[in-house]
Amino acid sequence: MRSEPTETATIPQAPVRTQPATCEKHGPYDQRVVVILDKELRGGCPECHRIANEEREQREKAQEALTKRLAISRKLGDSLIPKRFADRSLANYQVQNKGQAEALRFCRHYVKTFDQIAENGRCMVLLGKPGTGKTHLGAGMANDLMRNTSHSAVYRTVGSILQAIRATYDRASEATEASILASLIEPSLLVLDEVGVSKEQPSDFELTTLFAIINGRYEQVKPTVVISNLGPEQLPVAMGERCVDRLREGGMIVVPFEWESHRGKEGV
Ligand SMILES: [Zn+2]
Q1: 58, 76, 94 — which closes off a domain?
Q2: Which residue from 40, 65, 129, 153 puts its CA 20 to 30 A from 136's CA?
Q3: Model pLDDT for residues 110-145, shown as the tens digit of each residue
Q4: Residue 117 within any structural domain of the chain
Q5: Percent of the chain residues topping a pLDDT of 90
């Protein structure tokens, strides 16, 4: 019959008062003084306290992100971004023409608005001629995200993924196909390079693997950046129509790298 809540109010409170105090950094504040067992406990500056809390939270966040990255990289068996591309960033991308400036602008915007991109799982494809810096921009986006945000990003070529999965068929392998796929689905961003590089009809194994990755990320609303030397009309052949459908969901951003052909056309 008796209700509980009021009883807690009967616990005696330690007497609290405030007195004026001054922080060296933040100036005057109301200092809380609590008397416990005849001892005066004086509170610190609330601004100092707030800053210390904020710093602790940031450290915890960074630690959390690092732990997550390490877990993913353990699964992959090496770093998230291959050593060769570790120094690529959007800042050190050499712009030599209008097309490159435009492509860089798209990539910068993608990284800058990545919180939103991640929420919608909005994908991006960098398509066009070889040797136009697509890989630099793709690896650069992944590097910039890793350096400047708490997001995780992985850069991989299709070839290296297929090879890693084939290697799991070896009995001595610690990794499994499932663990490799999971490590490609888990990161906030996956940059998938050299799609359709073989020029031949892709094998069933290749198509199944690509769909498992792209669809796995789609189901978790995670964005993927796809890089290919193919044109937009050839992409469904190289990846499978279903894959491209998944990429298109949420409004795929297409960045064409076609300035070389532009230059060629001008001469005609
Ligand atoms: Zn202070």
Answers
A1: 76
A2: 65
A3: 999 999 999 999 999 999 888 888 999 999 999 998
A4: yes
A5: 54
- Cα 51 to middle of ligand 1, angstroms: 9
Is residue 5 over pLDDT 70? Answer: no
Neighbours of ion ligand 1 (CB under 5 A): 23, 25-26, 45, 47-48
Q: Encode pLDDT of 202-221 as tens digits.
A: 899 999 999 999 999 999 99
**Does the pLDDT of residue 267 top 50, yes or no?**
no
The rounded Å distance from CA 54 to ligand 1 centre is 13
Domain of 58 in residue numbering reads as 16-76
Q: Is the pLDDT of residue 184 over 80?
A: yes
For residue 28, the CA-to-ligand 1 centroid distance in Å is: 9
pTM of the predicted structure, to 2 decimals:
0.73
If one counts every other C-beta atom within 10 angstroms of the C-beta of residue 24, the result is 7
The verdict on residue 70 lying in a domain is: yes
